[in-house]
Amino acid sequence: MSYILNIETATKNCSVAIAKEGKTIVCNEIAEEGYSHAERLHVFMESVLTEAGITFKDLAAVAVSQGPGSYTGLRIGVSAAKGFCFALSIPLIAVDTLKVLAAQTKVSDGLIIPMIDARRMEVYSAIFSAELENKRETQAEVITENSFENIKEPIYFVGDCAEKCKTVLTKDNFIFLDDIKYPSAREMCALSFAKYAINDTVDVAYFEPYYLKDFMITTPKK
C-alpha cells in the first residue's frame, strides 16, 4: 500500500493528511490569524500517523505544497518534508498550492481562479478548467476592475481574497465561493498520488518552494 504524508503550510491553514492510494484517511488542520505552523506541524504529523495506525516507516513518499504563499509557512513545510525524506530515503513530491486550492471547487462548467492574498490589491493566481486543467500559469498580479474582463464564461473565484476583490470584480459571470478560503492537505492527497504513480518527484537536496520573491520585493507602480 502506498501511504503518502501530505503537508500544506502555504497559507494560514496548517494542514496535514495521510492518504492511502490517493484516498484521504485522516486530515488534521487549523487556520488561525497568527501563523502557528512551527508549533503545530509536527504535532499534527504525529497525530495523523497515530490515527491512521501507521508509522513513518510505512510512508512511501512525502508531499508538500510548493507555493506560492507565505514565505515562512512554505519554509516550515518544505524543511519538515525534506527532513523526513532524507531520514527515510523516500521521494519528495511537490504540489502546486493554487491547484490544491482549486481542487476544492466542484463545478461542471466555466473556469476556476484560485487566489492567495499578497498585499493591497495584489494576489497570486492561476486559471484552471473545471477538470483542473491548467489554463494559465501562476502569476502575481494587481486586481483591477479590468481583470479577467475578456473571459465570458463563468469564473469561480476561491481563496482568501474575496472581500477585497469583490469591490472591483463585479461582472455578472464572476462568482465568489466564499466558503473556500485556504488550500488543504485533504485535496493534496489525490494530486500527490497521481504524481507518485508516474514518478513525478523533486530533488530532495535542491528543491526550493515557489516564493515569487521577485514580485514581493518590487515597489508597486502608482
UniProtKB/TrEMBL annotation:
EC category: transferase
Keywords assigned by UniProt, alphabetized: Acyltransferase, Transferase
Record-linked CDD domains: ASKHA_NBD_TsaB
InterPro entries: ATPase_NBD (IPR043129), Gcp-like_dom (IPR000905), T6A_TsaB (IPR022496)
GO biological processes: tRNA threonylcarbamoyladenosine modification
Ranges of residues in domain Gcp-like: 36-154
Name recorded for this polypeptide: tRNA (Adenosine(37)-N6)-threonylcarbamoyltransferase complex dimerization subunit type 1 TsaB
Gene: tsaB
